[in-house]
Design goal:
- The protein has 756 residues and is mainly α.
- It has four domains: 18-230, Clc chloride channel, CATH 1.10.3080; 247-453, Clc chloride channel (Orthogonal Bundle), CATH 1.10.3080; 473-597, CBS-domain; 610-752, CBS-domain, CATH 3.10.580.10.
Length: 756
């Protein structure tokens, strides 16, 4: 009985150490993220009041649940400042970003996602500060953007800094926890912030579960710190009467989901279309955000002038939350469908102008405005078409906010929760789930976050777990060289005709076809050389020579199947044929194709956009295995005085394309490449007269036993060779080292050392 009070029992049954570790780190990240959110919101309030209220003479409204810390005296309305101030703000923001930290441009969260997948959780320490200042200036001066991007990068940047001396896995967790903490605090949505940080990393319905709990701790602390200054209210104050109690209302909500999915697709295309246009402008990058600010201000001024109203039209600039609060407070019908659609689609343009030009801000806030206004206008329209079904068109505002961002960002789960936390309305969870799910499925192929990967298979963070699956998910059609020329053999050809083709070809496998080019069978290089060595052979035509045991794969087969077929048939080539009765030959896939494709996809997963530490990472891995581990000692060798006949016998027995030549003391003399002697193989008259010494060439380089793998790889890169001989200091031949062998061991080293 007393054993339950023993130290050993507690140690075995409870993990206080792990709980304490994440409570400690999560609390530190939460405090810093909360303080960062306070600083950001304070500066943004100051700049916005100064520019919008005091200088422009405008009066943008704000969410009802947020305190306005500064109250400047409203100045006279000066139209030209509506254009000039965002332009100057864009210029200042562009100078700050491109001078001190170019990574801070754009919408922030995408850079955090990229750091998680591609940069091993590393964010430069100066990026959060630059992001904070640049985003305050961009949004505060009238640029259209949200707070999620900057605060995500601020929190993630500190998490990355805290984990700098930890392993990669932990650093990624801390970085993602910082992102969730920042978002959870500034939007008064701690649960949604934690889930968002785990969900936003993937475009498929996947969740980074390991991130969830550290992010939850950090988000709770950050929310507590932030709310102690800005209050504990929900961000939006909404009136009662919004709920769901009619099953038929799912029909208009279904229509809303389709409208939101199409609108989200439009927004993503407009956003990146404008970005491509700005990329084509050949001017200094510092000036581009100024152009974006000018276009934003010009559109805002145009709408104010045309509609003779600036109370809500000004929401196409800045944060733009005022229109949503007005819907919740006064009701949707008081605004009208026209003004709602103008603000919604105008917000798409101004957000694209402000951020795609290189400005610094987030996209969550604008997405809420776009989704809320389009959702409200859809609800009002449907209420007129099918009256009596919709309980309250303003309900479509909340559901529209959720559905639009779920479609834009591929984050249905966290968005449902976040919108509920923003408004305090949990009665609309069911229609929000309905709309978010449908909108996500419709538009999941496009995302505002281009650094998302489909699932963990494509993430460096899970390289060790999923890299071996590459060969299973990659198809033959993505591997074999479609432009590679290949020769076919007619069924009635004589040996002489066969030799005339084989002599000119570099193939090792030859398909035999009938007069209609239908595949009948095939043979390999060893088959034809065996016939030449047998004067009594009864094989006279290619039909006699061919056999059915040749590896055949279709373009849709995976590389694992192709590799197994080649291995089972002792060949390093396979025929790629159409999966049809005619078995049309499309090409030839080689073992080298598989190795190169695997290597390329491995590199894409592992690095993507390489950062400055990649070479150091590689060097650490290369030190984990030696030349001894990749040395191949079982290759057949030749002597200088061996004859051509001996060489042909070795070629038949070997799958290799390279053959080392050594003297009687095993000292390396040279190499023979299959392609160099291919034509001579079929000249039996020289079998007993032509010596190996006359055929061999010098190796482009030699590897000395004891050299580091870095030196070995450098020799491969410098020579372009696929195989190199290995000798000791006295020149004695020890074996051969190949690129494919190194690659295989390097891959395994990566899998074992993912967290270096």
């Amino acid at each position: 009985m007393l054993k339950i009070f023993s130290y050993k029992y507690f140690k075995d049954q409870f993990d206080f150490r792990l709980a304490g570790k994440w409570l400690f780190y999560g609390s530190i990240i939460g405090v810093v993220s909360g303080l960062g959110a306070i600083l950001f919101q304070t500066l943004l309030s100051l700049v916005s009041q100064l520019t919008f209220v005091h200088w422009m003479g405008l009066e943008p409204s704000s969410p009802g649940g947020e305190k306005e810390l500064f109250h400047f005296l409203r100045g006279d309305y000066i139209p030209y400042l509506v254009v000039l101030i965002p332009t100057i703000g864009g210029l200042i923001s562009g100078w700050i970003v491109y001078t001190f930290a170019p990574e801070a441009e754009g919408h922030g969260t995408d850079e955090v996602i990229k750091s998680f997948h591609r940069k091993r959780g590393k964010i430069k320490s100066k990026v959060p500060l630059v992001k904070l200042v640049a985003s305050v200036i961009t949004i505060g001066s009238g640029g259209s953007g949200g707070r999620e991007g900057p605060i995500a990068q601020i929190g993630a940047g500190f998490g990355s800094f805290l984990g700098m001396r930890m392993n990669t896995r932990t650093r990624r967790w801390l970085m993602a926890a910082g992102m969730g903490a920042g978002i959870g605090s500034i939007f008064h949505a701690p649960l949604a912030g934690a889930i968002f940080s785990a969900e936003v990393l993937y475009s498929d319905p996947e969740m980074e579960s390991e991130v969830l709990l550290p992010s939850t701790v950090a988000s709770i602390i950050a929310y507590t710190v932030y709310s102690s200054v800005f209050g504990w209210s929900h961000m939006f104050i909404e009136s009662s009467g919004m709920g769901f109690s009619n099953a038929l209302e799912l029909i208009p909500y279904l229509i809303l989901a389709i409208v939101l999915a199409l609108s989200a697709h439009l927004f993503v295309n407009v956003f990146y279309g404008i970005r491509r246009l700005f990329d084509k402008i050949k001017i200094n990058k510092i000036l581009k955000p100024a152009i974006g600010g000018f276009l934003t201000g010009a559109l805002g001024l145009t709408l104010i002038t045309l509609l003779d109203d600036h109370k809500f039209v000004v929401d196409v600039m800045g944060g733009g939350y005022g229109i949503l609060q007005e819907i919740f407070t006064s009701g949707a019908a008081n605004l009208g469908i026209g003004i709602l659609l103008i603000i919604g689609f105008g917000k798409m343009l101004t957000t694209s102008f402000s951020i795609s030009s290189g400005g610094s801000a987030g996209v969550f806030g604008p997405s809420m405005v776009i989704g809320g206004t389009i959702g409200t206008s859809t609800g009002l329209l449907l209420d007129r078409i099918i009256p009596g079904i919709i309980n309250n068109p303003a309900s479509f505002t909340i559901v529209g906010m959720a559905g639009f961002f779920a479609a834009v960002a591929n984050t249905p789960l966290s968005t449902i929760i976040m919108v509920s936390e923003l408004t305090g309305n949990y009665e609309l969870l069911l229609p929000s789930m309905w709309v978010c799910t449908i909108a996500y499925f419709i538009s999941r192929k496009s995302s505002i976050y281009k650094s998302q990967v489909p699932n963990p298979n494509y993430s460096q963070a899970h390289f060790g777990r999923y890299a071996p699956d590459i060969i299973d998910v990659t198809q033959v059609k993505d591997c074999y060289l479609k432009t590679r020329k290949f020769s076919t053999i007619k069924a009635d050809w004589t040996i002489k005709e066969i030799l005339s083709v084989v002599d000119r070809s570099r193939q090792r496998i030859f398909p035999v076809v009938d007069e209609n080019n239908k595949l009948l069978g095939g043979f390999n290089l060893g088959d034809i050389t065996s016939v030449l060595q047998d004067p009594e052979s009864k094989i006279k035509t290619s039909k006699d020579l061919m056999h059915s045991q040749i590896p055949l794969v279709s373009p849709e087969d995976n590389l694992a199947k192709a590799n197994k077929l080649m291995t089972d048939n002792l060949m390093d080539e396979a025929l790629v044929v159409e999966d049809s009765p005619d078995s049309k030959i499309l090409g030839i896939i080689t073992s080298s194709d598989i190795v190169l494709t695997y290597n390329r996809k491995l590199s894409d997963i592992k690095y993507g956009d390489e950062d400055e530490d990649t070479s150091l990472y590689d060097q650490k891995l290369l030190k984990t295995f030696s030349l001894k581990k990749v040395l191949e000692t079982d290759l057949l060798t030749l002597k200088p005085d061996d004859m051509l006949k001996d060489l042909v016998n070795v070629i038949i027995q070997s799958k290799r394309n390279i053959f080392p030549v050594v003297d009687e003391n095993q000292k390396f003399q040279g190499i023979i490449l299959l392609n160099d002697v291919r034509s001579l193989m079929f000249d039996t008259s020289q079998y007993e007269t032509l010596a190996v010494e006359e055929l061999m060439t010098r190796s482009p380089d030699k590897v000395y036993y004891g050299e580091s793998m870095k030196e070995v790889i450098d020799k491969f890169e410098n020579t372009g060779a696929w195989n190199l001989p290995v000798v000791n200091k006295s020149g004695k031949y020890l074996g051969l080292v190949s690129k494919s062998r190194i690659f295989s061991f390097y891959r395994n080293a990566l899998i074992r050392h993912t967290d270096i």
